[in-house]
Amino acid sequence: MFELSREHEEFRRSVREFAEAEIAPHAARWDREHHFPTDVVHKMGDLGLFGLTAPEEYGGAGLEGSDGGFTSLCLAIEELGRVDQSMGITLQAGVGLGINPVLTYGTAAQKEQWLPDLVAGRTLAGFGLTEPGAGSDAGATATKARLDGDEWVIDGAKQFITNSGSAITSLVNITARTGTRENGRPEISTLMVPAGTPGFTAEKAYDKLGWHASDTHPLSFEDCRVPAENLLGERGRGYAQFLATLDDGRVAISALSVGCMQACLDLCVAYAGERQTFGGPIGRKQGVAFQIADLEVMLQAGRMLTYRAAAIKDAGAPYQQFKHAASIAKLQTTEAAVTATRIATQVFGGYGFMEEYPVARFYRDAKVLEIGEGTSEVQRMLIARGLGLPVE
Question: EC number(s) (predicted)?
Fold first, then answer.
């Protein structure tokens, strides 16, 4: 049986205390006003949440391998997501999609330039993969970059990019076609585009169904020039680099989903004990109690799958083992989270349909969990391939 260490449980409690004090009292207002709270992001940085997977030399916690840095990150995302999914995804994207590509593939100079502020939570970075005409087919990237002397010239567009246009965004890493391979397939590389670069525009923020307090924009690039040394990692390896990045992200999204389910369970247990009908609390009724019992089962199963996958990552297990575990965790937890919010809304009845109750916010926030970091359909495809099936 997998169990968290005493240190991890103590860390969980510290993040929960922070989330309940600094985020929970304001989450409904941020959601209502579509407000991205940069001051709270800075406080998250002060708590060390953005540095859990980074070395000490860049201001991080220096947690590696058996120290459980990735597990700690997932715990933090779960606890933030338990009170506000928007702040949970801000941390998930800030570390998994912003910091980790630079940390994993960057040169010494790139790390020294960008990581200290990112790790401290003073700035954020985005991850520009998805495009208007590509979606889950990331290999169909249409954004192009050509070398012109000692500069890359970028033209194209990205969409649904988190942490890409906030007041504290410093950098967006993007994939772009930088040539054509001998077999005729596109050569895809990763480029670092600093915020404020001429020709790079973070368009108006999306009017989203949920995650109202997170920062999400479409991006456009028109004759956008960055230095040749802004190539991140090896030329032509951008697609592979981002696929590996997504595997980490899938487990982190699983943790966010677990936080969502925990919130639904907590809210339902409290409400079912207080709400009176027919002379007693609705929790007496099997029709309600059994639905809440199902919530507990989904939550426990999802939490075990999530932290098993995180432990595999921290243990340095073979990549394919981690990749398979990540897809399983992501598929189960995200679909369970959507079901959990539907159950919670049903338990609350008419009140669940009112925005003044948090279950309505969790209901809206949950759906995107099945879409981001690879849709449920993509996860099923990856799981089938991991079983050796020749699925396309």
Answer: 1.3.8.5
